[in-house]
Write a structure and sequence with these properties.
196 residues; alpha+beta
């Protein structure tokens, strides 16, 4: 269970020095520090369940979500997250994993994000389509279908079968929200192949 510093202190009414008690609980393996002011009671909690609590507002996206959905074959060790209006990238190296956060456009941010529940935890993750759009948004602009295919299937190693299971209408809608050459090109590419 995720516990904030305030939550931890509110449970320690019988203690004069609450910070010392929290430090002892960490030393004794009863609490596990995630980042300053945030703790977890279970050291085996998967990092992705903690991503939204570490820095927010945020949702899991980019490479981690592409791996989660089976769109890319390699296991992704960094938990990659999208943020809103933070202006700069953030990185947190914790005992639960390495987390990175970067902005996506304001209009695109709330679309195609799902709230998932796992046990007592909830987390937000981009849909398959949104994760790909978020990733393409971060890359240098591509100018033709050949370069897009190279980026998708060679550089990112997107599985072609999984790629063609993506919902082209969702990508078409999302392409209007990014002001991104790459996302627009992706939308056109999917329409072109749908019509052939």
């Amino acid at each position: 269970m995720i516990i904030t510093n305030d939550m931890a202190k509110s449970r320690l009414n019988n203690y004069v020095n609450k910070n010392n008690k929290i430090s002892r609980d960490i030393r004794d393996g009863k609490l596990f520090k995630i980042v300053t002011g945030l703790y977890e009671t279970n050291p085996d909690t998967p990092g992705y369940l903690l991503a939204g609590s570490i820095y927010g507002p945020s949702y899991i996206s980019f490479e981690y979500a592409l791996f989660y959905y089976g769109l890319i074959p390699e296991k992704v060790s960094v938990i990659t997250c999208a943020t809103l209006n933070k202006k700069k990238k953030k990185k947190f190296d914790t005992p639960f994993g390495l987390f990175t956060y970067r902005d996506v456009p304001t209009l695109a941010y709330p679309e195609e994000v799902m709230l998932m529940t796992e046990g007592d935890y909830t987390y937000q993750i981009a849909s398959r389509e949104k994760a790909l759009c978020d990733k393409l948004y971060t890359l240098k602009p591509l100018n033709n279908y050949r370069n897009l295919e190279r980026m998708l299937f060679l550089d990112l190693r997107i599985d072609k079968e999984e790629f063609w299971r993506l919902d082209g209408q969702k990508i078409e809608y999302l392409s209007t929200l990014y002001h991104s050459t790459n996302v627009r090109l992706l939308s056109k590419y999917m329409r072109r192949d749908d019509n052939e």
